[in-house]
Sequence to fold (226 residues):
Amino acid sequence: NAGVTQTPKFRVLKTGQSMTLLCAQDMNHEYMYWYRQDPGMGLRLIHYSVGEGTTAKGEVPDGYNVSRLKKQNFLLGLESAAPSQTSVYFCASSSMTETSYEQYFGPGTRLTVT
Amino acid sequence: GQSLEQPSEVTAVEGAIVQINCTYQTSGFYGLSWYQQHDGGAPTFLSYNALDGLEETGRFSSFLSRSDSYGYLLLQELQMKDSASYFCAVRAGSGGYNKLIFGAGTRLAVHP
Fold:
């Protein structure tokens, strides 16, 4: 099993450009998440999904959109990139039970917006 | 709102014991998780406490006091490879939903 994978690993964008980050998981998890991590600020939840076809806003959703058309994939879109979106983006997934508490993280995407 | 506080940095020597504290304020609390992250890597799960008390997993232990909104991660017999950032995260929500709110992280430096 590959677990959680993310593409691309690195990307440089110019202000105003758009891009999509892809997250895929092969663990049949219901829940998927997108976080951003900035120096000294830990992980902040951008958007999440509790199942195929559903999405919801997290702590810092502005400037991002997401889609979950297939259970195994969760896409994060930036329509018009800004320098403030320079960050490391992590995708995670987890199963949907009361006792399931572990989130599995992908390797991250390092995004720089100039 | 929801907030977590943990020290920004901790330094220790190999073989020692270190405790990383975490205090939180949240509604709909389910439990407290700890994650480890090495530089350039992804966070990986260490432990989870839903009930008061101590949970032990090898050299790592985690404690929770729900009445004090407080928990800690205890690392024993420190090794150089334990140098990493450690994040506490509150599991909160409703209906068993797994939403995590992370603290800013504690950077642990282990010296020879």
Notes: Chain B has no helices and eleven strands.
